[in-house]
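Reminder to self: tokens first, then the designed residues, so the page reads top to bottom the way the pipeline ran.
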């Protein structure tokens, strides 16, 4: 049974989740952090160039801002991969009308948002593959709890965005079991990035089979985390 997210805003006007008592993106509009942490942190756009398919996996679809930012950068890149697959999981998805309303704050995404909203599925638990941009872009939306959804998919990711609200407020999205699933879904060249440098996140990722290191953070955050699949990992 899927429970949709309810629209709410923090005093600064940022979309806010009462369920998790956390905001969906940074107060500067979020896009700078997405470009710096998730994209550059995973070596994008360079790493998707001259490829057939490039697959990104995200923990927490939220408003889909990371997806829209990535898709926009991909479609204007003349050297982009033939296909882009973006896998994301969401336990409390927005209804399509709410997504459209929220996306209105980013007019640069109007065309992409309209495509996404038109293809938005009925909110039923499980896997929904949504084809966009004439089929070149595939959004694989897993509706439900990450812990239940990730073990059910066979896909292989080349890059991972870790974005499941603050680890202190939502440890479920940063658990050792979830990190083991990410390692199972990681292709040999897989990288990851997140704005969190919490000790238990670094330890959990390392134990699951990623090599992580700190890098310069974005805006008010001094540091961020980058990682890659550790060589010789035996996927279980
Ligand atoms: C910081 S927001 C993600 C923002 C998003 N990446 C974007 O670009 O808009 C974190 C998201 O994780 C979702 N979430 C939290 N716990 C979850 C869980 N256990 N399984 C699946 N999704 C979860 C929340 O509902 C929320 O939408």
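Designed residues (236 positions):
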């Amino acid at each position: 049974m899927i429970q949709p997210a309810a629209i709410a805003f923090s005093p600064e006007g940022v979309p806010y989740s009462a369920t998790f008592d956390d905001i969906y993106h940074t107060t500067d509009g979020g896009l700078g952090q997405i470009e710096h942490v998730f994209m550059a942190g995973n070596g994008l756009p360079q790493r998707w160039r001259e490829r057939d398919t490039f697959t990104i996996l995200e923990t927490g679809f939220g408003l889909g801002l990371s997806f829209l930012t990535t898709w926009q950068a991909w479609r204007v890149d003349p050297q982009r991969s033939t296909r882009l697959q973006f896998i994301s999981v969401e336990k409390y998805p927005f209804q399509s009308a709410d997504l459209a309303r929220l996306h209105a704050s980013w007019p640069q995404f109007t065309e992409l948002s309209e495509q996404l909203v038109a293809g938005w599925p009925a909110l039923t638990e499980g896997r929904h593959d949504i084809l966009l941009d004439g089929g070149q872009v595939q959004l694989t939306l897993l509706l439900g709890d990450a812990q239940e959804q990730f073990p059910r998919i066979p896909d292989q990711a080349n890059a991972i965005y870790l974005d499941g609200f603050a680890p202190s407020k939502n440890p479920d999205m940063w658990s050792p079991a979830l990190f083991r699933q990410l390692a199972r879904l990681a292709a040999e060249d897989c990288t990851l990035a997140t704005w969190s440098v919490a000790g238990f996140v670094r330890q959990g990722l390392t134990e699951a089979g990623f090599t992580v290191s700190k890098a310069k953070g974005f805006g008010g955050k001094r540091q961020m985390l980058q990682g890659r699949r550790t060589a010789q990992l035996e996927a279980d």
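The chain has seven helices and ten strands.
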